[in-house]
Amino acid sequence: xxxxxxxxxxxxxxxxxxxxxxxxxxxxxxxxxxxxxxxxxxxxxxxxxxxxxxxxxxxxxxxxxxxxxxxxxxxxxxxxxxxxxxxxxxxxxxxxxxxxxxxxxxxxxxxxxxxxxxxxxxxxxxxxxxxxxxxxxxxxxxxxxxxxxxxxxxxxxxxxxxxxxxxxxxxxxxxxxxxxxxxxxxxxxxxxxxxxxxxxxxxxxxxxxxxxxxxxxxxxxxxxxxxxxxxxxxxxxxxxxxxxxxxxxxxxxxxxxxxxxxxxxxxxxxxxxxxxxxxxxxxxxxxxxxxxxxxxxxxxxxxxxxxxxxxxxxxxxxxxxxxxxxxxxxxxxxxxxxxxxxxxxxxxxxxxxxxxxxxxxxxxxxxxxxxxxxxxxxxxxxxxxxxxxxxxxxxxxxxxxxxxxxxxxxxxxxxxxxxxxxxxxxxxxx
Length: 430
What we know:
It is built from 14 helices and 14 strands. The protein is an alpha/beta fold. The longest helix has 20 residues, at 239-258. The termini are far apart. The model is unreliable at 1-60 (pLDDT under 50).
């Protein structure tokens, strides 16, 4: 009996020792945010396999980041930015996915594409750019199953307070500040009229309707004429060809009607190329696109082949600028020097990396701007928290951001837009 008791006691001790050592292989839960708020630019080396120490040789650590974008055919800049981030840190660390082109009619597929990212036990951050309808629901489902995953929305198509309730961070182009700054820039270039081109579906969006209200108010401040023109919705029966044909046909008469000192703005990407083409030919100004980029409309409007310059925005900008100067259109056309879509995909992922590593806070605007600047080194960014026009309450996790406007000429120049103080009254204009 004593021998049996001794054997049972030894067995119990062995089991206890085994239980104490069983926790070394589990995932470590990480929480967003750090203590010092400093920005890390990141390494240019490609990620390698785990070396057994819990961190990689490039300093990224044992975790994954996922980026969901549209396809190359629908959102090329967004996708290329995601690919650039993946190339920088490696396919073993960065996972990419594409939501359906027809996302409005394939809502469930869109949601599932985003949610599927959370199946990876090492996934620690998911960025969606652009955040099309369904992103809010996807983030809610992810947070229910994996609250440790950081969810970041770039350029949301959904109601900002709604998606802000599900995401850790939302970043949209600053429709309030830009509404004021685009008009201010047009005024500084000598324009006396501003023509806004859109259609009812877009005007139903809060971001676009509020921007129009700000633009109208800014025109009053700068003593400029404000005009609205309606063009066909490319998603209607006429499609993209019909919508573009309408712009091509009508710009000459608009220039005659409003004069060569009028600046034009359109809310749809498909309208941008024909608008630029005709303004180069007939006169008029174009400050920047709805989602600015040297690639937005300019290559097609100017007949440029940018194959050799692909991915190098400084060379792309130089080629576009040179073509405009050759056509006698210097100092009338502007853009953001670095693609908004490209920079958002890569920059928000860079910010997520810094947050996971504890060197940045998730809602630190300066840290977000620094991460974006990694992929736009010669441009400045600014922005502000989203303010509800009805309540006047400013959101802590919804940022409206913008890049300095670059006017192409001989030489071209930045307008210093990021240094301009926006009058407080415009943040509650609706």
